[in-house]
Amino acid sequence: MFSPDSGPNFDTWMRRIATPKYSGIINDNGVSAVNGINTVYANIGGRRYSAQLPPTTFFLMNSYYRNYNGQQTEQLKIAINDDVTVYKTENGKTTVTDGYGNIKRDGGPFRIISSVI
Questions:
Q1: Three-class HEC string of 27-82
Q2: What count of other Cβ atoms lies within 10 Å of the Cβ of residue 43?
Q3: Tens digit of pLDDT at every position of the chain (117 positions)
Q4: Which of these, 2, 3, 79, 103, is most buried using a 10 Å CB contact count?
């Protein structure tokens, strides 16, 4: 059950605690469109990457961050025209896989070869 004032409390928590702590993850992922060129940006393993996409490209991107008992996990999933790439970083090591867990040797759209970042 939520209390009647849980909404304002959640908003306060997001503004004071969560946003500064996770702002690098939340704010560094996105897309820009300039002169018909779409550029996708992502923070993966603490580094910022970009990839240019053709104007008619359909894509979806989502990410999450988790710290469980001191073990950090970041995951970014991007689907470009039905081609899924998953970037997963655990304790500094990034692996790049397809939607089925198979290693993507080309590094996906951000060209990251599975290695220590």
A1: HCCEEEEECCEEEEEEEECCEEEEEEECCCCCEEEEEEEEEECCEEEEEEEEEECC
A2: 20
A3: 445 555 556 556 555 554 444 444 445 688 888 888 889 999 998 899 999 988 778 889 999 888 888 888 999 999 999 899 999 999 889 999 999 999 999 999 999 987 644
A4: 79
Token couple for 14: 């997001």
Return the structure tokens found at 38: 């779409």
Whole-structure pTM value: 0.72
CA distance linking residue 81 with residue 48, whole number of Å: 23
Q: Tell whether the torsion through CA atoms of 27, 28, 34 and 39 is positive or negative.
A: negative
Residue 100 half-sphere exposure toward CB, CA atoms < 13 A: 3
At 40, list the tokens.
Answer: 């996708």
Task: Give dist(CA 36, CA 45) in Å, integer.
Answer: 29
